[in-house]
Amino acid sequence: MRSTPVVNHLLRLGFREKADDLTPLKIQKLLYFLHGWYLAVTGKPLIEEGFEKWQYGPVARGVYDALKRYGSNPVDDYIKDFDWETGEETAHFINPETVPQFSDVLEAVWKKYSPLTGAQLSTLTHLEQTPWSLTEMRERIDDELIRKYFVDQANAKRNASAETPT
């Protein structure tokens, strides 16, 4: 699926919660974590364009192009596309009924990662053995590498909680 409707869902959630730090950097990283966890849960990519390795972490180029006018400032509006039927700029969103488990994964990712800054999220993508660290600069990060990484993260968390005494 296209990345802009997914980003618009992230923005909708952020606007509803009055988040004032949704910079393009933070949105890119939230989108990456959403894509990664969606891959881990469903085995299918959430966005078709994928991510490239850039200096500050994974980047979906189409999202970068759509948000670059904000620089390091918070994004204050949805990404709009030209609608050929109406002749107007329109913000598109996902119909959650057509994308199984999207809403659940979105809520979980938002809860876990939205309290962090864009810089903190970028740092998480730069850890050793992350898909970003295993990819050459400006190359596309392989979705299977992303899926495996997030599945491993889920398994590690599951194993750690199983070892914790109650």
TrEMBL record:
UniProt xrefs under Pfam families: SocA_Panacea (PF13274)
Superkingdom assignment: Bacteria
InterPro entries: SocA_Panacea (IPR025272)
Domain Antitoxin SocA-like Panacea: start-end pairs: 27-132
Name of the protein this chain belongs to: Putative phage-associated protein
